[in-house]
Amino acid sequence: MRSLQMDWTKGTNACSYREQARQRRKPQFMTLKRNDVPARSSQCNGRPDHAVALLRMQGEHDVLPHYGLDRRPETAGLRVAVVGCGYWGSKHVRVLSATPGVAGITLIEQDLALARSLQVRFPTTTICTSLNEALPYVDAVVIATPPESHGELALAALRARKPVLVEKPLTTSLDEARLLVAEARRSGALLMVGHTFQFNPAVRELRRRLQAGELGEIYYIHSARLNLGLYRPDVNVIWDLAPHDISILNFLLDAVPRSVDAWGASLAFGGIEDMAYVKLQYDDPKVTGYVHLSWLDPRKTRTVTIVGSRKMAVYDDMAEEPLRIFDRSVHGHEGSPPSHERPAMYRYGDIVAPYIRPDEPLALQDRHFIDSIRQNRVPEASGEQALGIIAALEAIDRSMRNRGQVTVPSLAELEPRRDMRPPVGDRHAEASSTEMR
């Protein structure tokens, strides 16, 4: 795993987009020889619509569609910039390449070897090393860089009024997250966060059954997200894994936790927590959630267990049958505690594994992002929803430091102030895209 220091938002010289842009309203066709192919720029390897295709010409003559960058038909698809070509960035490129409504993909990456290796797999993509240089020529931005760079990059895109999808977590601080939400409202640009499990068909089916009351009164929810690694130098196990579990619980309960209590430990390496237990207390509905997180476990575990008064459910993201409903429960005598004379009564019924469509959650998420842009609607995993998750993460950090319960602000209390303004001038965002998320 390599670490590369980079400035994602600024470039060193003029982008070749500017040199090659043409004012064409309709597609035209051009017949070129190999010698006619324009040279690569140090920042962008050509116009997103056709320059890379020209560089890949195999024959002496190829006839290719030629679109101008500055003017396109209104019915044309969206041009999407993916910032970061690491683990999650490459997945977004794969998914977006097959998403209806996407006309082209630009890879924003300063490690050109990494970007070109991804371009080999997806030859119609183009490469640029600067987000600021590419912004005039794209319609939407997906940010898949390490978390500490999310705020800087998302702010640059929102200032340019570009819809943005940011990988989880939205930012590494609540203040920065509120700033992004305020800027999105000010600019009118869509802000969405990559809480992928909200689009998981099994999780959505589980939520439907919860809302229908099938499980009865919810006693508690337990989530486990364990594996051996992957250790990261920029965030602890809480900020790496807990966004998934908090987003799942918030989505299932349609609520945010009111308080948290957490304990964590740095076991394999000093200074960074690699194992943690978290207690999330929800007030409406009154449910307690328990989350176990670890980078130091021999088995890869991704489970959510819900125990209700009538039924129980287990969502296992690693199983062939990801969702199972257990018709099991326990009852006492007229609500009294069990005793030797009047023991508890246990009911064992059927175990049902409902049919779950095998749709990829990331593909559903990215399609929802594109559809939300085209239909001008608020996305499900919005920036406002992410505020509750970032607030919970900060509260968990404080709880581990203070060894006690910490109150989480409500969504109303998290509303950005109207006078919030982005800082003047861009900061340099130094990050490594090759870190596996």
TrEMBL record:
SUPFAM superfamilies registered for this protein in UniProt: Glyceraldehyde-3-phosphate dehydrogenase-like, C-terminal domain (SSF55347), NAD(P)-binding Rossmann-fold domains (SSF51735)
Any Pfam family hit:
GFO_IDH_MocA_C3
**Record region (Disordered):** 411-437
- Output compositional bias ranges, type Basic and acidic residues: 414-437
Example of a GO MF term: nucleotide binding
Q: Which domain of life is it from?
A: Bacteria
The Gfo/Idh/MocA-like oxidoreductase N-terminal domain covers 78-195
**What residue stretches are annotated with the GFO/IDH/MocA-like oxidoreductase domain?**
203-312
PANTHER family membership: BILIVERDIN REDUCTASE A, GFO_IDH_MOCA-LIKE OXIDOREDUCTASE N-TERMINAL DOMAIN-CONTAINING PROTEIN
Kindly provide the name given to this protein in its UniProt entry: Gfo/Idh/MocA family oxidoreductase
Q: Which organism is it from?
A: Rhodovastum atsumiense
Give the taxonomic lineage as stored in the record: Bacteria, Pseudomonadati, Pseudomonadota, Alphaproteobacteria, Acetobacterales
